[in-house]
Amino acid sequence: MQKHQVLSVLVMGALVAVSGCAGTKTYSSFTNEAGALIAGGDFGNSTMNNTMVMSGEKNYVIDLARRFDADVGSTVTFEFNSSQLDQAAKLALQKQATWIRQFPEVRFRVYGHTDAVGSQGYNKSLGLRRARAVVNYLATQGVSRSRLEAVVSYGETQPLIVTEGRERRNRRTVTEVSGFVQRHPSILDGKYAAVVYREYIKSAEPRSTLSGIVGTEFQTTE
């Protein structure tokens, strides 16, 4: 075979190989956003999480959530197979509402839980009814519904006490800070001075007038 014929065969082979590769999806990632393959379809959520961390918003939400739980308690409990609020629950939610009203730019979520008695489907529905009952009551205490969500029910899947039987501590709702109305903590800058002043005045009150904040009415165990 002549030299020019060998060269022609090599060139034709290379063209065939390239044309064969052209039909594959080897380079399809170049038509998508950067990181799409790594993110597994959740690229937008990853970006949002990174933005919140870098802006400080995520840490601020966590700090506020911890303070809320320490100040007034985030949990109320329920009777078996019930979403009705008893007097102890209402007293606890009144304390929560007072705290929530002091932070008008903060949003909250209420998570509903049940014990393990009953089917998973029924318990999920019951947990959501409990969360909605709490949202409804907080709304009667002057908290805007636009800042309250009862969108998640864990049903029986996240018990405090691991047991198959009835357990009141598992039949609960948890109110948590979920974010900010305008998506950034700096919106509190113009109002935070009033919050600090309120805390300063409260710290000067005699201890006897503060005893109700951590009263036994919140410990509603069977």
UniProtKB/TrEMBL annotation:
Its main location: membrane. Residues 65-181 form the OmpA-like domain. It is found in: Cell outer membrane. GO terms for cellular component: cell outer membrane. Coiled coil: none annotated. InterPro entries: Bact_OuterMem_StrucFunc, OMP_bac, OmpA-like, OmpA-like_sf. Keywords: Cell outer membrane, Membrane, Signal. Residues 1-22 form the signal peptide. PROSITE patterns: OMPA_2, PROKAR_LIPOPROTEIN. This is Outer membrane protein OmpA. It comes from Thalassovita litoralis. The lineage of its organism: Bacteria, Pseudomonadati, Pseudomonadota, Alphaproteobacteria, Rhodobacterales.
